[in-house]
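pasting for the record
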Amino acid sequence: MPDHHLDITRETCPMTFVRTRLALDRIVPGEVLHVLLSGGEPHRNVVGNASSLGHAVIADEPRADGIRLVSIRRL
């Protein structure tokens, strides 16, 4: 299963989840999208909306530079 990557560290809400959703729509169920994001609001929106759409947030890791890596499995 290939991994897919999306960097939305320079995006603001609501574009953070719009870009994430478009990326999720382009991948096959079962594949994983790794999203790099910054800030509390983008993190809450991406994680909350992905979960509400039925996708699985399988990892959520803060990095030393303040960026978070969120891994979402498309279901």
